[in-house]
Amino acid sequence: MKLLHEKINNQGQVRDGDILKVDSFLNHQLDVAFLNEVGKEFKQRFNNEKITKIVTIEASGIAIACIAAQYFDVPVVFAKKTDSRNLDADTYSSNVHSYTKDLDYAVKISKRYLNDDDHVLIIDDFLANGQAALGLVDLAKQAGASVSGVGIVIEKGFQPGGQLLRDHGIHLESLAVIKSLKNNEIEFATN
Ligand code: 5GP
Description:
Elements lengths: L1 H10 L1 E3 L3 E3 L10 H14 L7 E5 L2 H13 L3 E4 L11 E8 L4 E8 L8 E9 L3 H12 L3 E11 L4 H7 L4 E9 L6 E2 L3
The structure holds guanosine-5'-monophosphate (5GP).
């Protein structure tokens, strides 16, 4: 996606540990006009899939998923990372290892909001080792829902998440794939 490549080139910053910081437009300050284009692009790429729900993970995925959902005309369900009294007791739960925070946490979705009629599109901002996405796939499977695809804004192609999802037979669409962040330089894979 050309516009996304431009935004990453102009605003992306490489941080230690192969982290790409894009919080001026994607996951802190939000460029809503740009996110609209992201939503349209996901709609185009998953147009042939049956989708009844978009599933994401708090917090960074929520804005992207909500904007995309307007083009699919389906609800968004976001997995919660923290327990709260507001969360139903009856949940699907899966353990995820966080790449950016280097810790394990449980992701949970109430059993009321995912069921075996659902065809789920999983959306997230980044794909690195694939643990967040696989946690969401696991929640969908526990519910008996089918996974229609995974839509990612930025895949770090030098980490194993993309291959892992493809090995699971999942329809993965990444709007930008980064080949390398070595020497503080952002190199894209040609996609
Ligand atoms: P994974 O589970 O695929 O290893 O990591 C995905 C999650 O880690 C994403 O939800 C994202 O929040 C975070 N993440 C992974 N790599 C990066 C990165 O380079 N930059 C930012 N901003 N977040 C990242």
